[in-house]
Design goal:
Chain lengths: 110, 114
């Protein structure tokens, strides 16, 4: 079946970096999006990738390898406020056809 | 600023009762969506709409109805609420333009069915 997988938790240290992984196995692929969701709040869009390679957006960078069904979100110079869940969603067809991972909770220690 | 507003933010309902969750968007987006979010699951699509008057079934529509009376408003209706429908519900809008289709989410409704 189709699926998007993310590790449940990731811990890192303030001032360093964190890489949030996402692997997918889907019948189609029309792009992959990352959202940030703080505790008790709504998901907020961070990044969208559809071509292989690294997309550098400053504090957040996104990598995609379509042949491997793999993406990661890289956060650099971590701040405590980056503590949140990060959701990965694969678009497989028309606008409504998104398959969401269950999210990775990033915990940042001082 | 564009916004998606949900009401109520919290709701306690009894089994067998009727529940209506409301969503209003000022983004002027054609597409609107209702998701539920449960621990250990990704966001799951219940119903969606391409515009006023249209509703379509998502991946888990059983036990839910939807209504889109206008561009701005999209409601989710639980005719006979059950404890398994206890969850956090998110409404979202999107313009569907291009490949990105960024979704803008409301703050969520926490529903408990007792």
């Amino acid at each position: 079946g189709q699926g998007v997988e993310q590790p449940a938790k990731l811990m890192s240290v303030e001032g360093t970096f964190a890489r949030v992984n996402c692997t997918y196995s889907t019948s189609g692929f029309n792009g992959l999006s990352w959202y940030q969701q703080r505790e008790g709040q709504a998901p907020v869009f961070l990044s969208y990738v559809v071509l292989d390679g690294l997309k550098d957006s400053g504090h957040f960078s996104t990598f995609l390898s379509r042949s491997n069904g793999y993406s990661y979100l890289l956060l650099t110079e971590l701040q405590i406020k980056d503590s949140a869940s990060y959701l990965c969603a694969v678009r497989i067809g028309s606008n409504y056809q998104l398959i969401w991972g269950s999210g990775t909770k990033l915990i940042i220690k001082p | 600023e564009a916004a998606v507003t949900q009401s109520p933010r919290n709701k306690v309902a009894v089994t067998g009762g009727k529940v209506t969750l409301s969503c209003n968007q000022t983004n002027n987006h054609n597409n609107m969506y209702w998701y539920r979010q449960d621990t250990g699951h990704g966001l799951r699509l219940i119903h969606y709409s391409y515009g006023a008057g249209s509703t379509e079934k998502g991946d888990i529509p059983d036990g839910y109805k939807a209504s889109r009376p206008s561009q701005e408003n999209f409601s989710l209706i639980l005719e006979l609420a059950t404890p398994s429908q206890t969850s956090v519900y998110f409404c979202a809008s999107g313009d569907g333009q291009g490949g990105q289709n960024t979704l803008y989410f409301g703050a969520g409704t926490r529903l408990s069915v007792l």
